[in-house]
Amino acid sequence: MIRLATLLQTGRRGKIERSVIPACLPFSIEPPGAREAILLLHGFTGNPAEMATLGKELAEAGYAVHAPRYPGHGTNREDFYATDAADWLRRAFDARLELGARFEKIHVVGHSMGGVIAAAIASAFPTGRLALLAPAFLLSIPHARLTTFFAPFRKELRRNRLVSDVDRVDPVRAALHEEYWKDDLILPTAQLVAISRLARRNLVRVEAPTLIVAGSEDRAVPVRVCDFVKARLRRAPSVDVRVLEGADHHFPFDGWAGKTARLVADWMAGE
């Protein structure tokens, strides 16, 4: 957990005062009479808006949906550096506890790091169904494994990447690119690696029917993550694997969003 003194000083250094970007706020949709809820967990450096298409599809199917925002996400880089893995996990676990106090059954869906956290929640709480979208248990990012060693000495590497085609057409994502995606953020990535390693150990405790979805062109999480996770879900009553041919890592919120949402909604319904 970050030191309290660091948190108290963060707002004095300027940029954090911009607060959360409105488009990145958490969202909830509760259809009348909903008795089951789905917790939607976004990925590393992402935000709840990335789960919006999926959330709307599931709400139309009658589920109450809630997508929390992890601390340091959807704000700016300085704020991001003031958080760590424990903060992100705690927010997701709190959201699960809050839903559990109001609904009879809770399902969990997560993308990328959110998939790792979703699996951790399913290993710790009773879970109806679990959907893992490109879960970051394995990473294709070249420097990911080395971040644990470099993090104490250097928190980022300046890359000045150009805005991607996916992000260029969206002013909010273009702004987020400047804060999160144009450089290699070594210190936070080391925290992602730590979450992944810890959550792997608990996959054997997951007892929920599980769906694993991967994109064939994903350059962040390799397709082989499906077999990696499936082999460790020894207590899950069923494990379904789907590979979206031609999709990359952004499939829950890019041009594949609609297809992904329908796939997950159909699977939740047992179809």
Question: Can you characterise this structure?
Answer:
The protein has helices at residues 4-10, 52-60, 77-81, 85-100, 113-124, 147-150, 165-168, 171-181, 186-202, 225-232, 257-268, and strands at residues 27-29, 36-41, 64-67, 105-111, 130-133, 210-215, 239-244. The N and C termini lie far apart (42 Å). It has a seven-stranded mixed beta sheet, sandwiched between helices. Helix 2 runs parallel beside helix 11 and helix 5 (113-124) runs parallel beside helix 9. With 271 residues, it is of the alpha/beta class. The model has no long low-confidence stretch (mean pLDDT 91).
Topology:
Blueprint: H1 4-10, E1 27-29, E2 36-41, H2 52-60, E3 64-67, H3 77-81, H4 85-100, E4 105-111, H5 113-124, E5 130-133, H6 147-150, H7 165-168, H8 171-181, H9 186-202, E6 210-215, H10 225-232, E7 239-244, H11 257-268
Parallel strand pairs: 2-3, 2-4, 4-5, 5-6, 6-7
Antiparallel strand pairs: 1-3
Keywords:
Rossmann fold; alpha/beta; 271 residues; 7 strands
Short description:
The chain is 39% helix and 13% strand.
The major beta sheet can be summarized as: 7 strands, mixed
Roughly what is the average pLDDT, rounded to an integer? 91
Q: What's the alpha carbon Rg, rounded to whole Å?
A: 18 Å
User: Helix count, per DSSP?
Assistant: 11
Q: Give the oligomeric state.
A: single chain
Shape: globular
Strands of the widest sheet, in order across it, are 1-3-2-4-5-6-7
Task: Please write the CATH class name.
Answer: Alpha Beta
- What percent strand? 5-15%
Instruction: Briefly note the CATH topology name.
Output: Rossmann fold
Instruction: Give the full name of the CATH homologous superfamily.
Output: Alpha/Beta hydrolase fold, catalytic domain
Structural class: alpha/beta
Helix content bin: 25-40%
| Distance between the first and last residues' Cα | 42 Å
